[in-house]
Amino acid sequence: MPAARDIHPDWLVALVLIWVAGLLVHTITLTAALPGLTHRRALTLSLTGSAIANVLPLGGAAGVALNYRMAKRWGHSGAAIGTYTVITNAWDVFAKFLLPVLTLPAPMVETSAVNLAVSYAVVGAALALATLTGLGLVTLSSPTAAARAGGVADRVLARWLPPGTCRESLVALQADTSQIVRTSWRRLSIGMLLYTALLFALLLGCLTAAGAGLSIGAVLAGFTVERLLTLAGLTPGGAGIVEVGLASTLLTFPGAPVGVALGVLLYRALSFGLEIPVGGIVLVGWLWVQRRTPSRHQSPTQPATRGATRHGNSGDAECPGVTA
Question: For the chain, how many structural domains are there in total?
Answer without folding.
Answer: 1
